[in-house]
Amino acid sequence: MFFSKFLLFVSAIGRVTQVVGETPAGFTPATDTDLIVTYGQVATQNGAEVAEDAVASQPDLATTSQLSGSSYAVIMVDLDIPVDTEPHTLLHWMQTGLTPATTATAVTTGDGTASVFPLQNTKNTPALADYAVPAPPAKNPLSHRYVQILVDTSDLSAEGLEALQNATTTRVGFDVAGALAAAGLPDSAVVAGNSYSVTNPGPAKASELKRAVPETRRMVMRAPEQWDAEWKVRRQEQQQQQQQTSRDGGSKQLPPMSAKSNETVSVGVFERNGTIIIGVFPGNKSLPSNGTAPGSGPTVPVVGGAPPSLPSSVGWTTGVVCCILGLMFSI
Predict the structure, then answer these.
(1) What is the CA radius of gyration of the chain?
(2) CA 257 vs CA 43, 113, 198, 301, 324: distances in Å
(3) Which of 95, 145, 151, 254 is most buried, most CB within 10 Å of its CB?
(4) Alpha carbons 205 and 195: distance in angstroms, whole number
(5) DSSP states of 147-207 as a string?
(6) pLDDT tens across 90-119, in order?
(7) pLDDT, tens digit (0-9, with 9 covering 90-100), for 247-300
(8) How many angstroms separate the CA atoms of 168 and 182, rounded?
(9) Shortest CA distance to 100 belongs to which of 73, 71, 75, 135?
(10) What are phi and psi of 261, to 5 degrees?
(11) What is the pLDDT of residues 153-176, one digit of tens each?
């Protein structure tokens, strides 16, 4: 089994020309030493674009120079997951207990003959973080960079190993430099690196894209009877939402209905399904301002005059317009 996999590994190396396995620009801890990463017969060097189905299982690893340590670990991280917080990273793999070959294996490349030193998990050490297949979602960015680093863990203490294990409990936002520091491993322990990219063909889902402009809301005027009827429906919807939230163990404040009134006119405003619904009532109607049914809430004075069916003035019109605008932006 090992021999057949190794032949595939050698075959892949044989098709690579002047590979450079360094970590991408801006990544820390950085290295410009080659880490050879192959998936079957697919080599993934120097930021190469790789098909998602080609990276479905964990890769084989090797270095182009002999390593002097006794034990190594590989850490693989996605640098481009679509989250709003920094860092935009996801831990894909952390495997300790890798031992380097002590003799080189000669392979033929496009430029002649080269030597590589494979790394193997000869003691079948369990992974601290199992290999997670790179699979960028249909969200921006569609193309993700995956970086792999090889870390010398020859002098890693039991406490340091525990620190690495603890760091893997949170894969999203994984901090490579922080995890190594917590384990007592300096940046110089990173001895080789590589990166490649996998791209989702897209398109990015529209629902996942950030809105470029704020969502606008419609505003409609209702007759008193229709306003009352729609408010009762909205109130029932709010109560159902609150009951569902309570059953789920949470708490939720119901959005209020704003109301203003004086001796000659009352204005009620609420929002339903993205629409601002406004009702203007002749007289001092008791409108709810605390989520109760129409007719049972307190009234709040507002400047104004008679409704349009009564003698009106610019002052009244201005007062109602200001009232409506004020209520609209307060809910």
Answers:
(1) 33
(2) 63, 79, 50, 15, 12
(3) 151
(4) 27
(5) EEEEEE-TT--HHHHHHHHHHTT--BT--HHHHHHHTT--GGGEEEEEEEEEE---PPPGG
(6) 999 999 999 999 888 866 444 556 688 999
(7) 555 544 444 455 554 556 677 776 766 677 777 777 655 555 433 334 433 333
(8) 12
(9) 71
(10) -160, 160
(11) 999 999 999 999 999 999 999 999
Q: Cβ neighbours of residue 203 under 8 Å, at least 6 residues apart?
A: 138
> Which 8-state DSSP code applies to residue 99?
E
Rounded alpha-carbon distances, angstroms, from residue 306 to 38, 282, 320, 327, 328? 81, 8, 10, 19, 21
d(CA 89, CA 81): 6
CB-based contacts of 226, cutoff 8 Å, min separation 6: 279
Q: How far is CA 167 from the centre of its chain?
A: 19
Cα–Cα distance, 120 to 59 (Å, whole number)? 11
Q: Any idea where the domains of the chain sit in the sequence?
A: 13-202, 218-328
pLDDT confidence bin for 232, thresholds 50/70/90: confident
Asked if CATH classification 3.40.1180.10 holds for the domain at 13-202, the reply, yes or no, is no
CA-to-CA separations, 51 to 6, 9, 24, 54, 143, in angstroms, rounded: 22, 18, 19, 5, 11
Query: What residue type is 278 in one-letter code?
Result: I
